[in-house]
Amino acid sequence: MAVVGGLCLLVAAVAAAWISTASATSLLSEKTGRSQKPINCMPCSRTYIGDAYADAFTDQLAEHRGLVGMSDSGELCKGLTDDVEVPTLSELHWQLVGEGSHRRLVYSMKFGACQDAMINFLGGYDAHLVIIEKLPNGVFADPYELQHFVERKVFLDVAVFGDTNLELPSVLSNRSAVEIHFDLRPSTLSNSNLVVDLPLHARYPPLNASGYTTIEFGSPDLFLRYRKKEIHSSSCLWVLKNLEAAPAEKAAWRIPCGNEAHIGFVSSITFLSAVVCSMSIVLATLIF
To answer: Where are the bilayer-spanning segments (predicted)?
Structure first.
């Protein structure tokens, strides 16, 4: 009986070990499959990546939602990424430049590939850098101003999603996002370095006892969009690579705002000024 009991325990232990190994192998295969997921692709007829962000501007903005929503099918990318040495982003820095309510968000980027590798890649592919900046509430980008950048060929294309009403104050406005397409060419790169400027404007902030409102910018979404040159329009596809590089520092904007303690004084002065001006106009009309 002792021998039979020992054999039963041995069989149970072997079965448990086999089940554990199979589960681990299955989990590893699943994780490997996820990590080897093909790069996303999109038809050339689709102009903007940020279309997927258009309905995402709620109180809880989903991070990197656009890349999930825009992938049509993994089958689209078959054969498009084989034996292609795609440039990677090694450094990303940004800072706010300027004073007052009109400033520029300046991106400084460095690609990991050497200059010769970049030239070889750009020689066989049309490549665009796509920047999607999700603006915090209280800051907006002027679509008309950005279109002038396109007309001057500073940007290849640009679009603003979300709240584009430029007259609304901060408390009545919603968030927005800017998508910039920058044409990558050897002439636009200096030793694999690239600098891009985005002009921004502050909305009228709510009252604050400190006299300032601080707005912080999150990390932008950066993509490399490329396709082979001289391809048929019917089979044209953009390959999208997510350039995952976190900025080294945060960008913060301190915007001056009204002090709530001064409401009574300012309202009284404004009212008296309006009354005096109105009376002056009436008297001038009666006299002359």
So the answer is: 263-287
